[in-house]
Design goal:
By secondary structure, the protein is mostly helical. It is built from 3 helices and no strands. Bound molecules: zinc ion (ZN). Pfam families: Phage_zn_bind_8 (PF24623).
Length: 110
């Protein structure tokens, strides 16, 4: 898969599409589809695509436990303010997609 990284909104559009697929995977509880998404995400990164904060939507939030594809919710001690996602979730997604952290369930490579 090739991504035109010169298109100004390319990264946003790409991850937006990925987010929609992730939401579908969550709805159908399709672990294989999740794994495919992560693989595509890693390929995109390897080709120079940029991560955007929305890529945090791929994974379950470690703070509020919002599932993949769903926005974070306010929890005591971790208000969201204007953010759609908890920063911890964005950080986890970046590290997991870069391979610097293990993927959380249900994606964990056994
Ligand atoms: Zn959250």
């Amino acid at each position: 898969m090739r991504i035109d990284i010169d298109e100004p909104m390319a990264a946003e559009l790409f991850w937006e599409g990925m987010r929609e697929v992730a939401a579908g995977a969550a709805r159908h509880q399709d672990d294989d589809l999740y794994r495919a998404i992560v693989k595509i995400g890693r390929d995109a990164l390897a080709q120079g695509s940029e991560l955007v904060p929305q890529c945090g939507l791929f994974l379950q939030c470690p703070v509020c436990e919002a599932v993949a594809g769903q926005r974070c919710i306010n929890v005591p001690g971790n208000p969201l303010s204007d953010d759609v996602l908890h920063p911890e979730r964005v950080e986890l997604a970046e590290m997991a997609l870069r391979g610097d952290a293990p993927l959380p369930p249900p994606l964990r490579d056994e």
